[in-house]
Structures are given as structure tokens and as C-alpha cells.
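Dear H.,

Thanks for agreeing to be a second pair of eyes. The structure we're designing against is below in C-alpha cell form, covering all 317 positions.
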């Protein structure tokens, strides 16, 4: 029986140079804050121009994960990819990003996919095609929106981290404090309300209302991916007004008798919102510093509270 396969191609002309757009797609660490469907992405291996990555993304309303190998061709402005572990109903998928100069500083981005289904049925291929179509359109639109901002991405997309060592606490207690965010209103003064729903595959959907240093309250929503005793990765899907993207990772590490927690953030500041939120004359650099200080302060407060909770748990035992 022959294998049913399908090929799809999506394209968009964007007002930005090809090398800048290529760089955005080549760096998967930025995908969660730039590309809407992507929840979490990480580089697993890099040897020369050959890369291995792992991705979690919304796919037809579900959270799916897969690993891919990519060949990065910076001189040819092409990125070829092939999934080595796919998520059902996908049996195999490969494709390529191409960035073609279109004159007057514009670029034609072409995103091609070729795929087959686990069940050799047209309906399964249709399901995959629907997901590819929806996600490709969103991703190309997002790249166009980033390019249209008129600022180099490094000016408003950046990452930072904070790390705290907690002496003589149990790793499981520290992890559980972050995992049980539904209890944060009882444990963290800056958290007013949390609604938490567990999904299959250690996926959480979380809505949280927090209070900022100036006394104002705002509500955010996030998708969280939980890797027991190691990491909790998240992406905000409803954001504060100053940001167009925010993702992060809580990392847990045993260090002799202590536990270290690292809070990593990747953010995209919304340039058009800077003066509206922070006042006339505020620069993009000042907005970035404000975001770093605010998010870092909340992360440090949460990690310190996790240490107090874990320490009290040890004494209670």
C-alpha cells in the first residue's frame, strides 16, 4: 500500500530584510514570545550547522510535542527541518523555511511542509493539514508584526534569569511549591487569585491575578508544562499591557544538601505600549529595565517563599 502524503506551502511578503527574519526563525529560544502557537522550545544539540530541537505547541487546540533536526544555511537563508519524533496523528513531517529578498528591503518568507499520517486515511491528513495551515498563517503573521515594529528585535526581545540557593530543604517540597500555584494566594502576598486546571500530559492552564508595586492589579493566563522535580516551563497567553510575549522556566537542582531554583524569563516588550503604560518620554531601554526589575522581583519573592515553605516542611516532618 502506498503512503498517503501531502505537501503544503505558505508565504508572506514582509517589510524587513531577509537576514533579520532568518535570525528570528533560527533562534528557537525566542519562538515562545514571537510565534503564537509555540509554548516552549529548546535546543538539544548543535554540531556545526546541524541542530536538534524539541518543541511544544498548540496544535488544533491540543498541546503536542515533537523533536526535529534542522539544517541551518545562513548564507542561503534557508532552514530545512525533519521531525525525528512526531506526535500522532503525524507519522512523518519535513519542510523548509526560505527567506527570499523581494526588493525595497522586503522579504518573501516561504514555509513548506510535507507530511504523512499514522492512519493512512484522508481524514487524518486533513486534520494535520488544518493544523499546518492554522499554525503557518499565525507564524508568518507574527514574523510580519515583529518586522513592522521598526526596531531591531534585540531592542525589545530579551532574556534574563535569577537563581537562589535554598539551604537544607527537600527538592520535592521546593518543586511542589511552584507546581501547586493554586495555593499561591495563601502563600504569596503579590498573588490575589489563581485558577488552575490540570490537562493530560502534565499540562496546566493557569489564570492569575497579581498586584504590582504601584498597587494596580492585572490578570494573566498561562500554559505550564510540568517535568517533575526538574522544570516547569510556561507561556503567558494573556499578557500585561506592556508585553507582547512572555515565557519562562522554573529549574530545580540538587546542590549537595541544598536546592537551587533558577527562574528564567524571555520577554518581548510591546514598543507601542511603552509610553501609554509607563508615561511620555519613557524609552524602550527604560521599559526593558522596568520589566526585568518587576518580573525578577516577583520571581525572587516566589523562590524565597518556596525556601521558607520547604524549610518548614522539613521541620514539620
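And this is the sequence the design step returned. I haven't edited it by hand at all.
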Amino acid at each position: 500500500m502506498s503512503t498517503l502524503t501531502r505537501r503544503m506551502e505558505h508565504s508572506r511578503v514582509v517589510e524587513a530584510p531577509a537576514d533579520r527574519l532568518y535570525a528570528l526563525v533560527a533562534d528557537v529560544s525566542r519562538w515562545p514570545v514571537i510565534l503564537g502557537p509555540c509554548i516552549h522550545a529548546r535546543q538539544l544539540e548543535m554540531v556545526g550547522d546541524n541542530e536538534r530541537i524539541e518543541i511544544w505547541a498548540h496544535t488544533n487546540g491540543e498541546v503536542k510535542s515533537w523533536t526535529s533536526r534542522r539544517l541551518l544555511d545562513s548564507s542561503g537563508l534557508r532552514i530545512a527541518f525533519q521531525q525525528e519524533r512526531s506526535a500522532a496523528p503525524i507519522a512523518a513531517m519535513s519542510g523548509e523555511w526560505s527567506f527570499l529578498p523581494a526588493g525595497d528591503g522586503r522579504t518573501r518568507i516561504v514555509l513548506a511542509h510535507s507530511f504523512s499520517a499514522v492512519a493512512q486515511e484522508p481524514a487524518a491528513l486533513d486534520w494535520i493539514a488544518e493544523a499546518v495551515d492554522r499554525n503557518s498563517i499565525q507564524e508568518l503573521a507574527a514574523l510580519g508584526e515583529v518586522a513592522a515594529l521598526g526596531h531591531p528585535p534585540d531592542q525589545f526581545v530579551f532574556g534574563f534569569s535569577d537563581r537562589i540557593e535554598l539551604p537544607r530543604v527537600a527538592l520535592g517540597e521546593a518543586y511542589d511549591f511552584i507546581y501547586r500555584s493554586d495555593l499561591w494566594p495563601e502563600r504569596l502576598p503579590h498573588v490575589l487569585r489563581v485558577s488552575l486546571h490540570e490537562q493530560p500530559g502534565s499540562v496546566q492552564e493557569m489564570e492569575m491575578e497579581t498586584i504590582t508595586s504601584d498597587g494596580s492589579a492585572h490578570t494573566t493566563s498561562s500554559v505550564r508544562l510540568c517535568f517533575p522535580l526538574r522544570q516547569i516551563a510556561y507561556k503567558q497567553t494573556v499578557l500585561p499591557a506592556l508585553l507582547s510575549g512572555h515565557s519562562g522556566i522554573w529549574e530545580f537542582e540538587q546542590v549537595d544538601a541544598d536546592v537551587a531554583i533558577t527562574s528564567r524569563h524571555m520577554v518581548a516588550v510591546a514598543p507601542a505600549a511603552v509610553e501609554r503604560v509607563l508615561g511620555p518620554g519613557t524609552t524602550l531601554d527604560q521599559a526593558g529595565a522596568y520589566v526585568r526589575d518587576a518580573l525578577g522581583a516577583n520571581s525572587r519573592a516566589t523562590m524565597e517563599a518556596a525556601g521558607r515553605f520547604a524549610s518548614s516542611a522539613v521541620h514539620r516532618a
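Two observations from my side: The helical segments are 18-26, 31-34, 122-148, 171-179, 184-187, 274-278, 284-316. DSSP finds seven helices and 14 strands in the chain.

Warmly,
E.
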